[in-house]
């Protein structure tokens, strides 16, 4: 039964999580309710473990930046977890400093602004080719598989040096990899193993025949650098870049298009002034980020947060989407404002685990959104907004199917 935010709650009541999502892009009203009444609320995750859901901006920033909230501790035996199956490997996403600092420094040497800027013309070429194919096919089309999926997948394949022909395979494994309740524990573990084997084979191929791509550069760091990446780190870093490098952007392209098509005044403003696209992308990231919550943390000691004492060893879920709508941080937080003067949103997280690929994602989003509305000035939803559905049981937060016409 859906939770009603207006219903009275007993003191200390544990809420089932995740909350039921409304149709379209609407945020579940429970988040707004918790921000005002219970900003550090205890919830029961799909695994059955309990966690503290953090919903206010300042508290979320604390969780994301304070070393007492650990990602590495999520790998400890018996640690609380979100999904039924644990992620049985160490990657950049679940390291703490100083180990995280060492690995991220090595990767950052290759994942540079120069490399992203050099990719912009190629991103535009790929985008234009996809729009040509859409125009030739004619409306209606489902924008998710034909455009939102293809843009970032093409780019991440080129950046990492992953064969484009393998996109359907690794995309399927990625969706299972990011699931919470939509698949079985066995399927989750199987997807982890499949991705590990796939990346191990790619690493071996790059070692034999290196190319001008990021994965080849990472192999070189592993083989030659004094600080070097360990083989396991190299493989699972590749998994992290491959999965995060397309799944989040696929969902954010779809979210952004729906938001614009359901706010015609803002869409028209962007059509008339394409230079607004950077601000528009930031505002749509704030309002409709591709993930509701950041990655789970574990407290390393008792922590006082939002008037609640969180015991040592507890799971903490910082809600990015809720923090991004906190009226204490943002004026008129539910309103789209391309000219918002300060927009320190958490769509790319914050602190140690701020998204390494945020520059690439911004470039893809700006090019995809601007090119789409320029090419199809009469673009519109081909179904009522209330028929749009989000994928269920997933860490990412997008639109399952997006029929459009023009």
TrEMBL record:
Protein name: Monooxygenase
Taxonomic source organism: Streptomyces monashensis
SUPFAM superfamilies in alphabetical order: Cytochrome P450
Family label: Belongs to the cytochrome P450 family.
Entry GO MF terms: heme binding; iron ion binding; monooxygenase activity; oxidoreductase activity, acting on paired donors, with incorporation or reduction of molecular oxygen
Keywords noted in UniProt: Heme, Iron, Metal-binding, Monooxygenase, Oxidoreductase
PROSITE patterns from the UniProt entry: CYTOCHROME_P450
Record-linked InterPro entries: Cyt_P450 (IPR001128), Cyt_P450_B (IPR002397), Cyt_P450_CS (IPR017972), Cyt_P450_sf (IPR036396)
